Amino acid sequence: MLPLKRLTAILFGLGLVIAFVPENTTKQYKLTAGEMLTEIQFGTEMVSSDELADWLINKDPSIQLIDIRTPKEYEQFHLDNAINIPLNQILEDEWVDYVDQGIKMNIFYSNGTTLSHEAWMITRQLGYENNYVLQGGLNYWTETILNPSIPSPYSADDEIAKYEFRKGASQYFGGDVKSSTSQSKSKASKPKIKRKKKKKAPQGGC
Amino acid sequence: MGPLIPQEIIAEGWNFFIAFVVGVGFGFVLEQAGFSSSRKLAGVFYGYDTVVLKVFFTAAVTGMLGLLYFSLFDWIDLNLVWVNPTFLWSAIIGGIIMGAGFIIGGYCPGTSVCALSIGKIDAMVFFGGIFIGIFLFGEFYEIIKPLYMAEYLGNIKLSDVLGVSQGTLAFFVILVALGMFYVAEIAEKKFPRKEY
Q1: Which residue in A75, A181, B36, B78 has the most C-beta neighbors within 10 A?
Q2: With 0-12 CB in 10 A as exposed, 13-18 as middle and 19+ as buried, what is B55?
Q3: Is residue A91 a part of any domain in this protein?
Q4: B93-104: pLDDT as tens digits
């Protein structure tokens, strides 16, 4: 009977402790530094301004633009249908459904690429997918899409084709930066949350 | 850190090798504990020998506490640990069949292999029965399928269903296990059997 009593004491003690400690809900980092480096080197997170312009002109419904700058900057100018998630708020519960989802393609943008890359790195480290960065940010967007420079007549054909596309895009987006702003505060509908299974756990059984 | 294979700390190819080593160890311990005797297993039902019940409940409680403490110390990510999906009717009917087989044959699938390996004839018959069962299941799968797949509840945990924290549930499981240990002790005294 003695071993049973000892067992009771041990199990009861351990059980009591585990019943009253809070559950560990800390999310472990999903990507190692090495994996992160690979992704950065391949630049898979980058979306060029031409690609984005093409998607926007074709009204691709899967695109979700996310403005990473401060609300003030967002008020002054933002791309159509972009939502504003300032970088310092990106981890807040309010935005989790936007940045951690499996349906839309989120494109972060800021004036340059520093802020948007920071946002991307944070969300990527948490294991979120479908987040991308607008290459060159708004500055490059303005430079290439809104005010494309005319290539020299001796440029290669694809240079000229690119310019033709940009010229069209510029007309579509209003050409001039100031007039292309939409003052209406557009807020995209919240995508339905369809969390992806993180990593497959191996099956097992008795 | 853990689980080691889903986190790719150990390559997936090692999966079967590790399973093999653990399996051999498991079989060895089962045999050493006397689980290759069908009388010992049937003893749980008749109450004269409850070692099997104690061993398996101790194993379950140890595993449960181990996982919860490991999770508490950040040594394992419980979200990556596989939870068997629940098919309610399959579980109930399968449990009844397994329990009946346990009493009639005196083995569970694992211990029957154990006993087979030391040359017990009843275990060989039991083992043959397993394959007949597998064969029949395969042949009649299309007929059984609606029942087999019925009431799919997903990879649920008891703590989610009851709406309590995992720790609280673990504590209750421990209480149940301890209660069963004490009842088992009483049963062994009440239904003693000398020769088996």
Answers
A1: B36
A2: middle
A3: yes
A4: 999 999 998 888
Domain ranges for chain B: 14-190
Sequence length of chain B is 196
Please tell me which residue of chain B has the smallest CA distance to A27.
B77
Chain B CB contacts of A26 under 8 Å are 74
Residue A134, SS3 per DSSP: strand
Asked whether the ipTM of the predicted complex exceeds the cut of 0.95, the reply is no
Q: Total structural domains in chain A?
A: 1
Minimum distance, in Å, between the CA of residue B107 and any CA atom of chain A: 14
A205 touches chain B (CB under 8 A): yes
Q: Which domain holds residue A97?
A: 44-180
Q: Is A107 a domain residue?
A: yes
pLDDT digits (tens, 9 = 90+) for B4-61: 887 778 888 888 999 999 999 999 988 988 888 888 888 888 888 888 888 889 999 9
Q: Whole-angstrom Cα distance, residue A177 to residue B64?
A: 61
pLDDT of the residue at B160? 85
Distances (CA, A) of A102 to A22, A62, A128: 30, 10, 9
